[in-house]
Amino acid sequence: MSSLNLSYCLMAALIWASSPLVFRACQSRLPSLAMVALRGAGFVLFGVVSALLTDSPLLLSRWELWFSVAVTILSMGGGEWLYVVAVRDLGPGLAAAVSSTYPIFAGLAAFLFMGERVTVGTAVGTALVIAGLWFLRTQGAVGFSRRGFICALTCAAMSGVSLATSRLAMATGVITSTALIFWKSLVVGAVTTSLWLVLGRRQARTGQARPMDVLLLVTSGVCSLGLGNYLVNLAMRTVSAAVASALGATTPLWAVLLARLLFGDRLSVRQWVGVVGVLVGTVVVDLF
Predict the structure, then answer these.
(1) Which of 75, 125, 224, 242 is deepest in the core (most CB within 10 A)?
(2) Cβ contact 161:75 at 8 Å
(3) What's 206's DSSP letter?
(4) 142 pLDDT band (50/70/90 cuts)?
(5) How far is CA 27 from CA 115, 217, 245, in A?
(6) Burial label, 45 (beta-carbon count in 10 A; 0-12, 13-18, 19+)
């Protein structure tokens, strides 16, 4: 297991942690679906430019690859829509906590369909990461909604399956990370833009959007959705899907620390318990 590829996963988690900070900076002036659509546009920009700058083949010739890539991109695109519903029904705290269970589904999919061996250390570390995420993200949630809970859990399952099938697609040696990102970006861009066009007009603006808001959100899409996914795909050349998902799930830890640094947010005792759980879980996964 390469330490460089493990660092790719942690770098991706740090990049993903910037997303809620960008949303927080722009939410007073733009509706949520408009922000998601702008991030999707940034992802498309990354995918298209990456494809143009490389000689990676984008057309697939084997039905097995078509199947794995279709599952991957549909999981990611469908997950974006389900997460919007979950956040609306549960609030961002509980929705994030439930959707953070995706490492379980990634490990299960890798075990069932790819024959990956899940070690005791990986299982224990993943459990600690998930427990830590629960403590970090349950504060501030609104009332329970069965529909929101099911949507968040389904989003987690889709994210986990997407991660595992990404590795399956690349394991054949025919499709590259660049090609996979290209197809993902097109689907996510189409889904997020459609959501904004259909539902976004119902959301009232709370302020006047600034060009800097648009730039921040598009850049967030380029970095969080594009570069972050590219780094994870690179890491999965030697890192199992279960390990990659557990390390990538440390995103809330970095988000909390960055919020403390940039916005002065203070951590409660419950959140500190979550921080410790995530750190210990990550170390266990790394060492075992």
Answers:
(1) 242
(2) yes
(3) S
(4) very low
(5) 43, 11, 28
(6) middle
Are 210 and 2 in contact, with CB atoms under 8 Å apart?
Answer: no
Which pair of tokens denotes residue 39?
């991030």
Q: Any idea which of 33-37, 91-95, 123-127 has the lowest mean pLDDT?
A: 91-95
Tell me the mean pLDDT in the region 62-79. Answer: 65
- Contact of 110 with 240, CB cutoff 8 Å: yes
Q: Provide the token pair at 257.
A: 């620390």
Tokens of 148: 């929101």
Residue 63 pLDDT level (bands cut at 50, 70, 90): low
Collapsed DSSP state (helix, strand, coil) of residue 239 = coil
Give the domain ranges of the chain: 3-287
Q: Which residue has the tokens 């988690």?
A: 13
Q: Element (H or E) spanning 38, and its range?
A: helix 32-53
Q: Rg for the chain (alpha carbons), in Å?
A: 18
- Apex 105 CA angle, 104 and 107, nearest 5: 65
The encoded tokens of residue 163 equal 């991660």
Q: pLDDT band for 222, please (50, 70, 90 cuts).
A: very high
Distance CA 195, CA 201 (A): 10
The rounded distance, in Å, linking the Cα atoms of 35 and 55 is 32
